[in-house]
Predict the 3D structure of the following.
Amino acid sequence: MTASGKQERRYWGTVMPAHADIITAMAKQAEEQGLEGVFAPQVWGPPFTALAVAAAATKEIKIASGIAIAAARSPFETAVTALDLDRISDGRFILGLGTSVAAITTGMFGAPEIKPLAHMRETIAAIKHIISGASKGLEPFEGQYFSSYATSLAPMGPPLRETIPRAERGSGGATASGAGITSSGQRRSLFSSGTGPPETPARISREAAPCRS
C-alpha cells in the first residue's frame, strides 16, 4: 500500500518454452529486478514445463500459469501438476486457469463441447477436492464433465499447501466474476486489458486486486 492509500503496483514478467539456459536467465533476471513473479502462457503446449525450470532457478519470485486452458486436460492432471509445482517452487506457485474458446478447446485439443462457466465451476471444485484429499485418500467425485472414482489410489505425500492460490479468466475476461469463483488471498490479473486475444500474454500484468467472496 502506498502513502496515498493506493495499492502498490506489482509487475510480472513472462517465461516461454525455450532452452533451459534461456528460461533460467529470464527467471533470474526477473528476480534480480524485483518483479512479483513470472508467468507462462499456454499457446500450444502446457505452460507448466517452463515454470518448473523457472522455479528451480529462483528463490523468491512467484511463478504462475498465465493461463492454463482448463479444458485441455483433466482436473486431476491439473491438480497434481499444481501440487508438484508448488513443491518444486517451495510454495510459490499460483494456478492461473482460463476457458479459452471452442475453436481451441474442441477444435485443437479435442475436448467435448462444454458450457464454459459451468465447466470452470466444476473444474475448480474438482481441483479443490483432489488437492485437499490426495494425501488422505480420495473420495469419489461426480460431475457433469468430470467424474473420478480413484478410491484405489494410494494416498500421495502431504501437499506443501492445502490451498494453492488461483487466478481465473474467461475468453471474455469475465469467468471468475460470472461463475462466482473466489481465490485464496488475491486474485491476480495475469493478462493486460489490451486489444489482443485473451490467450496472448502481456509482458507485464496489471496490479493485483483483492478477491471478493
